[in-house]
From TrEMBL:
It holds the Pfam family tRNA_U5-meth_tr. PANTHER family: RNA M5U METHYLTRANSFERASE, TRNA (URACIL(54)-C(5))-METHYLTRANSFERASE. It comes from Myceligenerans pegani. This is Class I SAM-dependent RNA methyltransferase. CDD domains: AdoMet_MTases. Residues 26-84 form the TRAM domain. One of its GO terms (biological process) is methylation.
Amino acid sequence: MTTRPSRPRTRPGRPPRGREPRVSDVPGVGELLELEIGPVAHGGHCVARHEGRVVFVRHTLPGERVRARVTSTGSRFWRADAVEVLEPSPDRVDPAWPAAGPGGVGGGELSHVALPAQRRWKADVVAGQLRRIARYDGPLLDGLTVEAAPGDDAAAGLGYRTRIDLVADDGGRLGMHRFRSHDVVALDALPAGMPLATPGVAELAAAEDVFERRWKPGTRVELVAPAGPDGADATATGGEAQGLVLVDGEPWHRGRVDSRPNARRAVKESMTVRLPGAEDATTFTYRVSAAGFWQVHRAAPGLLAQAVLDAAGDVAGATVLDLYSGAGLFTLPLAAAVREGGTVVAVEGDDGAVRDARRNAHGLDQVRLLTGDVAEVLAGRGEAPARGRAAEPDAGGGPVHGRADVVVLDPPRAGAKRDVVAAIADRDPARVVYVACDPAALARDVGYFAQAGYHLTSLRAFDVFPHTHHVEAVAVLERA
């Protein structure tokens, strides 16, 4: 899947589609086990064993001894939540988000772990997935660290989410889904109920009284309050307020759906990066549909765009493919980096994201926008040039069909997969810059690239989802 809004990292606590709530009468569910906790595993839990059976345990840490309540059973493994800590780890702290504790909402499964230990946890997961799945055990994994986003240490990893999704419970109170369930846990008003939200999101919620109201059960309420170009909260610093409330996808203002012509506006997003060879930083401004995909951490857009530019190197005059390009987060700084003599071909499968990208790249003659499934476009099928000045393809179908100097890709959580990796390799780029939000998918695709003759030459990891198990990585692959 290539559509950007499908990326589940933007919606903590929402259960995967099609998964039914666990039932309490399943044999073994609810049983209390005393467990010695082993190493971390991908997904926010640690591994323990009970009578030879693997048990994945949440809300614990390696080396602890806990009592855990079984939440699901199966033939291959069980799941459990630690409900009593008998021997704590020195890395255990008071939970930063109590509502995400055992039996609570998803999306804050590491809030009981000290921030430095969270980053060591994530580094271990990234390294472990690359060793196990990609069969890579090179020097890049020695001492791998997960880098903090600017300001997170001072803020204890809180107040970073610029977009929050809520849903009304059976009583009409707003909350989030219980982990691996469709049940809704009601939350207190922000920031207490969800301390990962930025002050701007909390102020927006208070201004519209969203937690004081009683909503129709199942109503979805989305709060969007973009940060400024340096990652600072625009509302909290006195900047222009750009927040927007969506109720079941419709703009909401002062207690009712806002039907004014300009109500369904795109929100203003921005970031600042330093281009290769430039002495001063450059600010890029975007307009993004409120319900569209954008990095949720206030500082993530600039942090990741800078990492991509650094990884791509000097691309002046080059042809760059920007795959899964979304609203153009990387497209715009790459266009500036290739300069007038270069070309950036951006490919995105979601029509709404392409509309945003067309607006954001307007007037950039070196940008070509294509809409369609990335695998299909690279294979020469299903390609459609997006409309607008920034989207006219070259004669003969555009550079997407020829050799590329550099390929940048930022796929959804499922990763690029074999066909896309093969199509990238066919274009013989000197360098591939892979932005990944899932270590397992990254490791699988690094293995595919190795089969195609590319090897890992650089790896960075970023903690843009503090208090969750999610981690972002930027990997560079080059011809062996």
